[in-house]
Amino acid sequence: MAGDTSPLDHPVASRAVDLLRAEKTDALAGVTHHAGQALARVPLERLIEVLAFLRDHDELRFDHLSNLTAVHWPKNDKPFEIVYHLYSIPKRHRLTVKTAVAEGEAPPTATGLWPTANWHEREVFDLFGVRFEGHPDMTRILLTDEWVGHPLRKDYPLEGNPGDHVQYREVTTAEHVYNNDKAPLRGFGWRKEVEKTGLGRG
Amino acid sequence: MDSQTLMRDVVVPAIQIAVFLGVVLGFVAYMQLIERKLLAFMQLRLSPRRVGWHGILQPIADTVKLIIKEDTIPAGADRFLFTLAPILTVAPAILGLAVIPVAGAPITVLGWEIKPYIADLNIAVVFLLAIGSLGIYGIILGGWASNSKYSLLGALRSSAQMVSYEVPLGFALIGVMMLAGSASLVKIVEAQKAAGWWFVFPQVLGFFCYFVSALAETNRIPFDLPEAEAELVAGFHTEYSGMKFALFFMAEYTNMFLVSCLATVAFLGGWLRPFPNLEAFAWLENGWLLVVPVVGAGFAGWLLDQRFGSGLRCMFIGGVLGGLVGFALGVADVGGLASMAIPQLSGAFWFSMKVMLIFFLYIWFRGTYPRYRYDQLMNLGWKWLLPLSIANVIVTAVVMLLRGGTA
Amino acid sequence: MFRTEEMEINMGPQHPSTHGVLRLVLQLDGEEIKGVRPVIGYLHRGVEKLCEHRTYPMIEPLTDRLDYVAAVSENLGWCGAVEALLGVTPPPRAQYVRVVLAELQRIASHLLWLGTHALDLGAMTMFFYAFREREMILDLFESFCGARLTYNSMRIGGLYEDMPRGWIDRVRHFLKIFPGRMREYEDLLTVNRIFVGRTRGVGVLSAADAVAWGVTGPPLRASGVNYDVRKAIPYAAYADLEFDVPVGEHGDTYDRYLVRMEEMRQSLRILHQALDRMPDGEVRAKVSKFIKPPAGEVYHVVESPRGEQGFYVVAQSGEMPYRVRFRSPSFVNLQALPLMCRGRLVADVTAIIGSIDIVLGDCDR
Question: Which helix (H) or strand (E) holds A40?
Fold first, then answer.
């Protein structure tokens, strides 16, 4: 098995992975390695427990949440992956933690562990529509409060008349309306409009 | 009233006021250009150069632009007070100019004797302080009437600042009044001539307090909090445009001119030449004998610096050499140059030189210092300047007492 | 009849001292700050979405436009991330030239910060002095790649081209002049009572808070935490070069100023070493024209002048990345602003914003 993987996928030594395997065996859904970085998959239910373990264990001390983001895999059962990139300033090692989230499921917030997760989670909500449970201020951050849809989803329309899918509604708080908004896209009208009128060329 | 009295008491003073005002306001307008030139020089950049030779017409162009610019009044502003505020600010500043004596002797034009001041009040110093504190009403009203939070904050800061710094400003001037035995500006200068030295020497502390308070009083860096652009956009005049803005601007520079004049009169001997009592320096009545070589050689040196990139070395060398040449010219009285002094012109020359010196300090400060914070400003005013200026008054009084009532 | 209430004041998005389009909603009690709410997103251009539909080399110009004040760091990080995905190592000469570019960029960026920070505090002259030297660096960049701000001079696997002839001498000339100029800055600011009064003890961020809020770069080091990606996870040629990481004590605005000033000196040190040890050889590794990394993901971090700049790239065996996320230091550091501002005065807000040195293009992406 290890023979046919590329050198990029060779496992790297990671104290964090070893400790996780030893002490949180049942909370570890899998470990992969790529480009010299270790990645641990954790089920959603055990996420906060594992993150807290990683942060507080004396040998690990992942005190720096470097990055928190999401990836959208629309074909998966649980289409969203929340990714935590951890780094330990005193111990100088890092680990990536991933958890899969189903549509409509609300992962627990990491703001209790690392306050820095606040804006990262707001951004994930803004661009992916994943709500975080227990987050102090779950509002849009980069887009306007009235924005409809979550652009970093793979099924977010790329072309077409902006008026067809980017609407401004009169709402004061942002909420996930993507699923409720079943109005069919009226095709790629913008391009046709250009061909018809010649407007917008050059 | 016969025509003679009418001419003497009404027409001639009116013409004098008009001329004086024209000259002073023109000077104030050009102060702005000088400031921009000097500041640009300190900041390695070009100053206005497009309008006229080296931007010499820039103030006129600015004024014309401000006059023809649309004069907006923001929605929700109190229209009457909004319009009144700039007038309330600029009027006291101009009014204060009335008591400034710019030269020693009166001149005679067409048989009419014209005094080098518009009025010689025996309470001129108090008058100036009173007038100065009136200007604050315009600022508060302007800030409040704009209906803008930035303007309001700027006006609040401004009023607190001006109220605080008026106190040390007044105390710093008390020492001078004690030495001169009078509050009349003419008497103060004459007392300096009698004492044989400028009051800046016995009143170093007073001058320091006065200068710092004056900086704060005119809202200049490092005390330009009311219009701290990084925090409050433009402070109390954020919402002003066109001629109303120009009036605020004019008031600011006129106030600067006024406090510079007062500093000159009270501390730097007004129209007196340096060493007013030494006959050996009588040639200094012809001030240009010294100043022209210094400025000329310094400028030539600066041009050389520009050409050869030698920092500012040639400028300083040129200035010193020019000074020596001027000194030699004056002492040796080459070609009788030093004896051709007209006392009125000489007085005005030295007066404007001293005002320019103070003004240069203003610009130098602006080019060097960051801005104080509000609480630091208050600390400085109440905890340092006020005690210092009071101590100055007490020390002056004690010394005068010990020396038998004189300085 | 009379009542007092807190005033809410809207600072930005058009405001002289928010350096771009940051909006702060300040809760004021007189001049005292009761609360700050940063509102961002005015410069959001959807770069991450754009990246999903560009090939890997096409994304490099986009990274230029994230942190337009320090584009080299972004280029370097992006190329490093894709190289990690490909398993390619650029030749040593390329690594050294990258270090030279990155450190010049660090000085240029810190100079911009120094000038604007001083300007926010009212020291206008400093702004022009700092820009004078920044201009020299931009001229160097211009002669290196033809662009002054958005360089796009790196390629995946190395550089587009070697340094032009005589360029090293020009850099050395700059290195000779710059220390004297830095003394000028120090004369104007470091010992200036007003400047020290405005910055010392202002916007204090404790080490624990800084780490918890993910603050990186000079603000973190000013709080006394020694974390510099160049030392912690060395990339390019930094492992071979000697330099110190300046660390502050109090975590206030003045310490952040001192840390950045010292960083500029350390950058000079790095530049001297990199130029002296510049290896010969190619500047570009053999990389296919069509860059198709195998499926996988990488999180690559570099030390930009603003802090830890992260690049999270998910590849799905195609010419275009599946997902890209730029972990921008401005975005994360800005989060700590309310913490630093609480209980301070309005004037301190500008000092504190200046001291965390944000670039909104980087923050909003």
Answer: strand A37-41
What pLDDT, in 10s, does the model give residues C14-43? 776 667 788 888 888 877 888 888 888 888
The answer to whether C252 touches C200, Cβ cutoff 8 Å, is yes
Q: How far is B293 from chain C (nearest CA, A)?
A: 30
- B73/B189 same-domain check: yes
Q: How far apart are CA B272 and CA B274, in angstroms?
A: 7
Nearest residue on chain C to B150, judged by CA atoms? C9
- Please indicate, yes or no, if residue B231 is contained in any of the structural domains: yes
Among the listed residues A156, A150, A112, the one whose alpha carbon sits nearest the alpha carbon of residue A131: A150
ipTM (interface predicted TM): 0.85
Tell me how many residue pairs between chain B and chain C have CB atoms under 8 A apart.
84
Indicate if B287 and B158 belong to the same structural domain. no
Phi-psi region of C46 (alpha: psi -120 to 50; beta: other; left: phi over 0): left
Per the model's pLDDT, the better-predicted residue between B304 and C222 turns out to be C222
> Which domain CATH number covers C91?
1.10.645.10
Query: What is the percentage of chain C residues whose pLDDT exceeds 70?
Result: 99
Residue carrying the six token digits 């009849």: C1
The answer to whether chain B touches chain A by having 3 or more C-beta pairs less than 8 angstroms apart is no
Name the pLDDT band for A190 (thresholds 50, 70, 90): very low
My answer on whether B237 and B123 are in the same domain is yes
- Structural domain total, chain C: 1
Cβ–Cβ below 8 Å for B366 and C124: yes
Contact B178, B242 (CB under 8 A): no
Predicted confidence band at A181 (pLDDT cuts at 50, 70, 90)? very low
Please compute the mean of the pLDDT values over residues B291-319 and round it to a whole number.
Answer: 79
For B334, the domain range is 282-340
pLDDT of residue B345: 74
- Kindly list the structural domains of chain A, giving each domain's residue range(s) and its CATH number in brackets, ordered by start: 7-158 (3.30.460.80), 167-202 (no CATH)
Q: Are residues B191 and B301 in the same domain?
A: no
